[in-house]
């Protein structure tokens, strides 16, 4: 497995750069992963990342984009639970990119 | 790469039933079956799941896998609703044989007797077993 | 509807669940270790006999032959070869494999 180095620690990632061990995640690692994805983290980015971690904590899966959008709409309102808003934050796919930054596995149902 | 496969507009919607008959953890069937169901949701078909025989154990409340070092995937059944998979059919006889009732299950289901479940299976276009 | 069973009735309850949940007029094909259920004198004989009232029972001959059971098939069980297996699948609109 490939490793990444950050903050004097090393972390195992899979071949696509997703963290292998959920427990390795913290905000510093997230910031590093975001930088690798060329995403500048704002309050709005963190809101989605934290939402994903909560979703994972509850259901033990990373949601497919359609499911994420719907769940965000329910929790944070329709102005955030839509594709436009989420893709603006994470241009290469909110489910994929935000999940990676959140330290979650690649979403189930993501092809 | 996109997050989801593009759907063909106006495609035919078929009835898919995933038939679950294996207990979790002892074999990989239950987890693999669940993952296939979640992926199938992207294809916007009429998807249902049937839980028969040891498959009813997949839905038992109170699963805690810490000590066996496997992932507890039982909370994921509660995510199915968000994937618009709401038709969960449970075989009454299989529950009875195992000393379980609907109250022992971690999601809302429709419990069916043999005749109801048999009819439901017969009307499917595609049945996929795990 | 076609049901396919491939487990021995002495090891699993697969055959029993199949027979309970097959609707009248359905076909049941016994393959692999399930072919033992189609033999005379076995404890499953009664179940298969009773099922014949509502269901058409088939068994895959190559699997019976392989297991030395070809001469012990119960009356009323229809034998098919691989070509017949394919025909059964195509003749029915849907199919459940009882793994």
Plain-language structure description:
The complex is a heterotrimer of chains A (111), B (130) and C (99). With 111 residues, chain A is mainly alpha-helical. Chain A has one domain: Orthogonal Bundle (Arc Repressor Mutant, subunit A). Helix content of chain A is 49%, strand content 7%. Chain A is built from five helices and two strands, in the order E-E-H-H-H-H-H. Chain A has helices at 27-36, 43-59, 65-76, 83-89, 94-101; strands spanning 3-6, 9-12. A two-stranded antiparallel sheet of chain A has the order 1-2. In chain A, helix 1 packs across helix 5. The longest helix of chain A is centred in the middle third of the chain and has 17 residues, at 43-59. Chain B has helices at 29-40, 92-97, 114-122, and strands at residues 15-20, 46-51, 87-91, 110-112, 126-129. A five-stranded parallel sheet of chain B has the order 4-3-2-1-5. With 130 residues, chain B is of the alpha/beta class. Chain B has one domain (15-129): Hypothetical Protein Ychn, Chain: A. The radius of gyration of chain B is 15 Å and the shape is globular. Chain B contains three helices and five strands. In chain B, 21% of the residues lie in helices and 18% in strands. Chain C has 99 residues and is of the alpha/beta class. Chain C has one domain (2-98): Hypothetical Protein Ychn, Chain: A, CATH 3.40.1260.10. Chain C has helices spanning 14-21, 45-51, 61-66, 82-91; strands spanning 2-5, 27-30, 56-60, 78-80, 95-98. Chain C has a five-stranded parallel sheet. The two termini of chain C are 16 Å apart. The chains are: A mainly alpha (111), B alpha/beta (130), C alpha/beta (99). At the A-B interface, helix 3 and helix 5 of A face helix 1 of B.
């Amino acid at each position: 497995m490939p490793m990444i180095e950050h903050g004097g620690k090393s972390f195992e990632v899979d071949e696509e750069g997703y963290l292998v061990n959920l427990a390795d995640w913290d905000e510093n690692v997230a910031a590093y992963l975001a930088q690798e994805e060329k995403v500048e983290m704002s309050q709005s980015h963190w809101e989605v990342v934290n939402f994903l971690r909560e979703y994972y904590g509850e259901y033990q899966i990373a949601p497919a984009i359609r499911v994420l959008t719907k769940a965000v709409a329910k929790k944070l309102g329709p102005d955030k639970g839509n594709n436009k808003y989420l893709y603006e934050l994470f241009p290469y796919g909110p489910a994929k990119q935000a999940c990676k930054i959140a330290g979650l596995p690649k979403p189930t149902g993501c092809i | 790469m996109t997050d989801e496969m593009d759907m063909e507009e106006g495609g035919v919607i078929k009835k898919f039933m995933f038939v679950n008959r294996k207990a979790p953890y002892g074999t990989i069937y239950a987890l693999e079956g669940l993952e296939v169901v979640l992926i199938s949701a992207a294809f916007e078909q009429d998807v249902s799941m049937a839980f028969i025989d040891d498959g009813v154990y997949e839905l038992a409340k109170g699963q805690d896998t810490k000590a066996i070092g496997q992932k507890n995937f039982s909370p994921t059944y509660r995510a199915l609703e968000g994937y618009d998979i709401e038709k969960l059919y449970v075989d009454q006889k299989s529950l009875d044989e195992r000393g379980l009732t609907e109250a022992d299950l971690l999601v809302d289901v429709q419990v069916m007797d043999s005749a109801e479940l048999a009819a439901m299976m017969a009307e499917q276009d595609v049945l996929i077993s795990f | 509807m076609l049901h396919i069973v491939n487990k021995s009735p002495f090891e699993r309850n697969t055959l029993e669940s199949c027979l309970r949940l097959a609707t009248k007029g359905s076909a049941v094909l016994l393959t692999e270790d399930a072919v033992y259920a189609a033999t005379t004198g076995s404890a499953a004989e009664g179940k298969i006999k009773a099922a014949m009232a509502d269901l058409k029972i088939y068994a895959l001959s190559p699997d019976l032959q392989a297991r030395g059971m070809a001469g012990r098939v119960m009356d009323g069980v229809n034998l098919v070869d691989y070509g017949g297996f394919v025909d059964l699948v195509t003749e029915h609109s849907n199919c459940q494999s009882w793994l």
